[in-house]
Amino acid sequence: MDDEQFDPGSGHSAVVYVHDVAWNPGDLIDLDAYPLLEATSERRSAVVADARASLTAIGAAELNGFLSPDGLEALRADAESVLDRAHRSEGPATAYLEFPDFSLEEGHPRRWLGYGGVGAVARDLFDDDSALRWLYEWDPLTDFIAAILGLGEVFRYADPLGGLNLAIMRSGDQLQWHFDQTDFVVSLAIRDAEHGGDFEVVPRIRSADDERYDAVAAVLDGHDHSSVLRLGMRPGTLLVFEGRHSLHRVTPIEGSTSRLVGLLGYDTRPGTMSSDLLKMIRYGRLEPGQEPRQFFEPA
Fold first, then answer.
1. Residue 115's beta-bridge partner residues?
2. Please, which residues have CB within 8 angstroms of residue 76's CB and are 6 or more apart in sequence?
3. Residue 276: what pLDDT?
4. CA dist., res. 218 & res. 213, Å (int)
5. Which residues in the chain belong to E strands, given as ranges?
6. Is CB count within 10 Å lower at the N or C end of the chain?
7. CA 247 – CA 255 distance, rounded (Å)
């Protein structure tokens, strides 16, 4: 049935046939616990209300068991099939995902550097029959994310490299304390590491009106542990996270099993593209088909 194709945005009832693999995106999700397709039902409204309450309280909504057992297995197999396509980036990085500002006094958070190491599979490297790709491009999931965020509509990224990524963290990898440069991030936990890889967050430590550098510095320097929350992020969990004002990190990975997380990019406006700086750091290239290179490697 290689010749039959279908638009994943057309709904739950359609089946995707590509390379003899049939995907029904809704079958990847536990629709009993998370009734995405019941747009006006009380059950869906209750799930959305609980998620929005969690976002208000801690800037994060964990939807444990979002993937069905078969869905989790399909996404795990999908992720494992593209591990060798990842581009590695590692080295010192700031908490603000910008270059450090050495004009500021020593000890200022915008001078702080921590280690980050991760591999990323770009959107254009997922196969046509990728379960993760079809789930990301499925309109009912996009609509559900918009409802949780309390937005009338959100849009998938237009970036052919960004938008959909697989983050791969192996032994020794970690993500330093940082703030996101976007209002929200959506991720799917696919596989745990043997040890480490915990997602830690300090909810709403800053605001649009107050950077609270003293509080941020206390966390970065390791002096404040009391405000740190650890989110479970068990495999199968969907996480909607507002990371612009919440400091967060992934603790060091240990063991031979890599941590796998799908990253799903949405924005409040259509046509969003990643910056050239971000693309070079994360993928080592600016366009599909280019040979990747390290960020500091001469062109």
1. 92
2. 190, 191, 235, 260
3. 87
4. 9
5. 16-18, 21-23, 60-63, 87-93, 114-121, 155-156, 164-169, 175-178, 185-191, 195-196, 199-202, 229-231, 238-241, 247-250, 253-254, 259-264, 266-267
6. C
7. 26
Distance of alpha carbon 141 from alpha carbon 265, whole angstroms: 12
pLDDT for 295 = 54
Does residue 280 contact residue 161 with C-beta atoms inside 8 Å?
Answer: no
Domain positions in the chain = 8-283
Rounded Cα–Cα distance for residues 288 and 299 (Å):
16
Q: At what angle do helices 139-149 and 42-58 cross, to 10 degrees?
A: 50
**Which tokens hold the place of 19?**
């390379």
Ranges under pLDDT 70 in the chain? 1-23, 294-299
Question: Which among 258, 237, 118, 119 is positioned nearest to 193, based on CA atoms?
Answer: 258
Question: Are the C-beta atoms of residues 130 and 221 closer than 8 Å to each other?
Answer: no
State whether residue 132 is helix, strand or coil: helix
For residue 23, the model assigns a pLDDT of 63
Residues pairing with 241 in the sheet:
60, 185
Instruction: With H, G, I as helix, E, B as strand and everything else as coil, classify residue 195.
Output: strand
Q: What is the CA radius of gyration of the chain?
A: 19
Degrees to nearest 5, angle at CA 216 with 212 and 218: 120
The dotted CATH code for 8-283 is 2.60.120.620
> How far is residue 8's CA from residue 65's CA, in Å, rounded to a whole number?
22
